[in-house]
């Protein structure tokens, strides 16, 4: 997030797109409700009528994968009405004219045809966002899990800069991270092309710094993304896989393709809390300590790094992740010996000058610190780009709408989208073993609109068979007025109803390599009552 969670309550307008916030980020949703009570306007754009839609000043259900067109349409109206922040654009941004020339073609009529959103709603969305500053834009995986995920994010940034909403309190472009330490994992170099703090592995000075610190030469070649790993396994370039805290058997697309790859591996190691579907097919399983059983830090969605402290001792032979990795590294020939997590953190901070260098365990206290925190006297940064952008000037991008990779047709006439439901988390590795959570929803289901249910003679609870070009699965029907006709929804948490049987491993964003989980084409029929 460019801004802090608490700042949502100071926003004049809150624009939520591609995020079922009450189900997936309920504490942030509370901030939205508080802001609403204080007079903030709320815009919600989602293919489904989510819970947050009921409280919105404007709520629209745009077609799956039409986010760029929707955002471009809003910007067209803003520019036509002169609502853009001209001084901000002139002083703090570049490449505006190139972006604006593309925006001219996204007339309300054209956007309505692409998105299915009424032109009056589009105009109201544009007016509220542009005239109720500071406006904050919140998004989640409904924006990123597309073949155009990078374009979607660029369009969100275009809209925010157009109205001067970046670098101001209560504004910003704010991705809601999917787990408690997604931000921290990225910050720590959990991406194939960077070291900590997003320092490129291709940069000779970066490599020299880390090589000196670790006493070994480092490669200048980026690693593989998950999307690249599966083909590498299948063609024999990748023979072993070490999976930490992940359950690709349920979370990665195209279940059949993935299973073929996992069977071809020479060796699979899984490090996790519980025996997930992936751990069940591993050659070796390392039992990792849970959050209450270890020391360390998490960095959350607002860039806030916070300490966790051990409350209970790990069970049996369970070890914290850092100790498992250190022992494995040492056994493989590189001696990795740390006394404790604090020593690891201090080393990391010393190698990450712009964002973490000023952080120490003692300074974090109870509330933690937000990066950038470049030195020991720095208080942390509540919001980014206050006086200027990190790159100097904010860059506008000319982005055109591209349709999803797979659209409905005569053979596969339905859109399918996937996501979370309120009681469970990701692949259910933790939540489905909790009796209090699992009782809320004990099996998967497929949500279908009343109109489609009537056309297919489907009643609540009937078993449906869904099929895509990759495979087929079964799930009981849940008739829901939240869906438009022609669109189905599946939650991702249930191994007995695996959503990833249907999703594609070949459709992914060419830059971010994120699969298009949010759009697939399927057919559906009733199996039994």
In the CATH hierarchy, the architecture of the largest domain is: 3-Layer(aba) Sandwich
Q: Tell me the count of domains.
A: 3
Strand % is: 15-25%
Give the strand line-up of the largest sheet.
15-17-16-19-14-18
Please describe the topology of this protein.
Blueprint: E1 13-17, H1 21-24, H2 26-37, E2 41-45, E3 58-60, H3 67-80, H4 86-92, E4 93-94, H5 96-103, H6 108-115, H7 119-131, E5 135-139, H8 141-144, H9 149-162, E6 173-175, H10 182-187, H11 204-214, H12 226-234, E7 240-244, H13 248-251, H14 255-264, E8 267-272, E9 284-287, E10 296-299, E11 304-308, H15 321-331, H16 341-350, H17 361-364, E12 369-370, E13 394-395, E14 414-419, H18 435-438, E15 446-448, H19 450-455, E16 463-467, E17 472-479, E18 487-491, E19 520-528
Parallel strand pairs: 1-2, 1-5, 2-3, 4-13, 5-6, 7-8, 8-9, 14-18, 15-17
Antiparallel strand pairs: 10-11, 11-12, 14-19, 16-17, 16-19
């Amino acid at each position: 997030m460019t801004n802090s969670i608490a700042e949502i309550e100071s926003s004049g307008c809150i624009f939520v797109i591609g995020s079922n916030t009450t189900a997936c980020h309920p504490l942030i949703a509370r901030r939205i409700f508080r802001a609403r009570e204080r007079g903030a306007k709320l815009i919600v754009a989602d293919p489904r009528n989510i819970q947050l839609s009921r409280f919105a000043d404007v709520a629209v259900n745009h077609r799956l994968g039409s986010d760029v067109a929707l955002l471009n349409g809003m910007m067209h109206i803003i520019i036509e009405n002169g609502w853009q922040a001209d001084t901000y654009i002139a002083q703090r941004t570049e490449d505006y004219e190139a972006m604006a020339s593309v925006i001219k073609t996204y007339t309300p009529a054209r956007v309505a045809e692409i998105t299915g959103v009424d032109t009056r709603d589009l105009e109201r969305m544009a007016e509220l966002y542009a005239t109720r500053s500071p406006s904050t834009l919140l998004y989640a995986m409904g924006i990123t899990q597309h073949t155009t995920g990078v374009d979607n994010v660029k369009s969100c940034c275009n809209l925010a800069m157009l109205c001067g909403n970046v670098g101001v309190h209560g504004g910003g472009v704010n991705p809601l991270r999917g787990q408690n330490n997604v931000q921290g994992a990225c910050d720590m170099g959990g991406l194939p092309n960077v070291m900590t703090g997003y320092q490129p592995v291709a940069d000779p000075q970066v490599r020299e710094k880390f090589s000196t610190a670790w006493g070994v030469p480092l490669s200048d070649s980026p690693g593989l993304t998950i999307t690249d790993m599966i083909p590498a396994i299948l063609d024999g370039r990748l023979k072993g896989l070490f999976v930490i805290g992940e359950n690709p058997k349920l979370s990665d697309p195209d279940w059949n393709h993935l299973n073929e790859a996992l069977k071809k591996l020479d060796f699979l190691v899984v490090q996790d809390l519980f025996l997930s579907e992936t751990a069940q097919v591993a050659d070796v399983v390392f039992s990792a300590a849970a959050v209450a059983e270890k020391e360390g830090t998490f960095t959350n969605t607002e860039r806030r790094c916070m300490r966790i402290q051990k409350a209970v001792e790990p069970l049996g032979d369970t070890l914290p992740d850092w100790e498992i990795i250190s022992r494995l590294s040492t056994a493989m020939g590189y001696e990795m010996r740390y006394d404790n997590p604090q020593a690891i953190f201090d080393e990391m901070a010393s190698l990450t000058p712009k964002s973490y260098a000023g952080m120490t365990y003692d300074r974090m206290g109870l509330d933690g610190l937000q990066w950038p925190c470049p030195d020991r006297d720095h208080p942390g940064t509540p919001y980014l780009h206050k006086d200027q952008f990190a790159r100097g000037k904010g860059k506008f991008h000319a982005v055109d709408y591209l349709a999803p990779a797979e659209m409905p047709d005569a053979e596969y006439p339905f859109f399918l989208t996937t996501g979370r439901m309120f009681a469970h988390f990701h692949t259910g590795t933790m939540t489905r073993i909790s009796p209090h959570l699992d009782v809320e929803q004990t099996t998967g289901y497929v949500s279908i609109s009343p109109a489609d249910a009537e056309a297919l003679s489907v009643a609540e609870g009937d078993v449906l068979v869904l099929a895509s070009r990759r495979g087929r699965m079964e799930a009981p029907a849940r008739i829901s007025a939240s869906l438009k006709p022609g669109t189905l929804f599946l939650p991702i948490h249930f191994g007995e109803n695996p959503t990833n049987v249907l999703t594609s491993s070949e459709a992914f964003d060419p830059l971010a390599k994120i699969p298009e989980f949010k759009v697939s084409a399927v057919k559906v029929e009733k199996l039994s009552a």
